Amino acid sequence: MIANNKYSRNQIDKLGNALIYLIENMGILPKTSLLKLIYILDEYSVKKRGFPMFNLQYEIWKYGPVCQDLYIEFNDGASLLKDYIKSEVIENATHISPVNSFNDDEFSDSDIAILDSIVTTFSGKNANYLVDYTHQKNSLWYTTASKNGVLEALLNEEINATDYKIDFADLVAHDENKVAFYHDHLEFLNFTASLNQR
Questions:
Q1: How many CA atoms lie within 13 A of 20 on its CB side?
Q2: Where is each Antitoxin SocA-like Panacea domain found (predicted)?
């Protein structure tokens, strides 16, 4: 279960509606696919605009990158996201389906364009494809695991999860202005989230 004070109402609404959008446009999806797609949305947003769509933290897991809070939310049954999705076991796999219709109040035109791009690119791709996509050489998952000495252990299935976090700033490290913009935007998101929690 996600801690109530960790995310702002706007973050929860945006994440919940993004999940609905993905499912409405791609069909009921297994948990691993949705975990990957949410990560890919954040990564793609940083590459394209210099800031993440959701501002979630992702850890280096065997099938990661994974937002641990979202993983727990899917496995334990939606609590904070209960107005948006439900989890159910179908053929020994957890699948996520919407309980509401998509609402675009929290989304800019740029957000919708990114969602559409991800839907177009990854529709019909299974969870194994998405894991392989996020684990490519030079991906943030691969370079972070390698830098922290856990790559071989993850690939050889000696460990399943780590506490090492993805740093999206690495995607824009080649451009000082984008790095500064990225950090300024995160500071702004964290500040507004703290205001919304009061």
A1: 19
A2: 34-141
SS3 at position 60: strand
Total residue count of the chain as it appears in this document: 198
∠ CA 150-136-2, rounded to 5°? 65
Greatest alpha-carbon pair distance for the chain in Å reads 48
Domain boundaries, the chain: 9-196
Q: How far out from the chain centre does Cα 111 lie?
A: 14
What are 42's two structure tokens? Answer: 């954040």
The pLDDT of residue 114: 97
Environment class of 141 (CB within 10 Å of its CB; exposed 0-12, middle 13-18, buried 19+):
buried
Q: How many helices (H) and strands (E) does the chain have?
A: 8, 5
Range 145-174 average pLDDT: 93
Task: Return the SS3 of 179.
Answer: helix
DSSP 172: G
Q: What is the pTM of this model?
A: 0.89
Could you tell me the two tokens for 38? 């949410």
CB 35 within 8 A of CB 59: no
**pLDDT tens figures, 164-197:** 999 998 888 887 878 888 888 778 777 766 665 5
